[in-house]
Amino acid sequence: MTSKFKIGIAGLSRGRSWVDVFESHSSRVEVVALCDIDEDKLKEVGEAFKLEDKHLYRKYDEFINDNFDIVAIATPIPFHTEHTVKALESGKHVLCEQTVAYTVAECEKVIDTVKKSGKSYMMAENYCYFHYIQQWKKMINEGRLGEIVYAEAEYIHNVEELLINGKTGERFWRNLRAPIWYSAHTIGPILYLTNDRIVRASGRHCGYHRWPDKIKEPGFLDMEVGIFETKNGIILKILRSQTAVHHHMVYYCLYGTKGSVENHRIRGQKGILTIENETGIDKQVQFGEKPELIQPGYETFSPPPPKIDKDKVGGQLIDSKLVDPNAPEDAYIVHGTSEYYLIKEFLDSIENKTKPPIDVIRSVEFTIPGIIAHESALKNGEWMEVPQYSW
Q1: Domain of 42?
Q2: Structure pTM?
Q3: Continuous segment of H or E residues that includes residue 39
């Protein structure tokens, strides 16, 4: 590459964090234009990038006609389709925050526009780039867990302050976002790990017990769960909430014919890896010092259960690190080193004229199952087909 990629960023609430992300790739990129409706944010981020006022825009249609190669879209999700389409039609590559859109029709419009434009589109699903997810990927590819048959993912994140202003009652845009629509942080890493896609979906929700007066605003649903069937026959369950009284948690668990792996539920703890004939029980496991206490309560049974060979089924504590210890010093940004590698692979794909790792088809495969699961939840869990797309 003889010159740097020129970047424009639209949406500076989340987009503000892209300052450090792109700075970590300063030898390859240069941020040259910004767009946001908030003048204060424009000024703040503009100063961080040392940009002249003429490259700070409040109107997207003016911003998108500035001279740059890639637009990073971090605007609210209801605007993703419009902003993506306009960017592609103006001849720019697109890196878009998750998810692609809120409807199947909008997702299809993005697919069609990418195909017509010939430009690259990648959804910035950074959770696929967590260091421990990358480690799991290598382990699964090596066959150490055997054939994956079942997986779970939970993303619990109370964002009630982003749904409603507690003092004025003003609604914010997420108030209409069903929890399971925001599915890429859960579905994405599982499909990435298993190299699979979802073909059928069923969903249920728990109603509006915490916010009983908000029954027309799906963002306030208590909890929403989706059950999915993949092309390869894996059953996947995801759980989502943005109102639960619970700590912020991202949890994954995969079960294979030879073993299983899961990360921690509480920050600071460790995950557990179990591989038949490979892992033994770690005596530091939280259930107690005695290895047999990993099956709590057995000592009280009468008659006692058969003795279990710990060399075959024992679990081992493992780290669930977000940071790659071998990454460059400036690679640690917001979510460990995930954004650093996400940007690197996107830029590599443009440079090499190849499809980005999470291209438009893959992005839609991470997005649409959540849309279908919510539709199913409104139909009492009816199983529904998930549309399939290809190049």
Answers
A1: 5-127+332-358
A2: 0.91
A3: helix 39-49
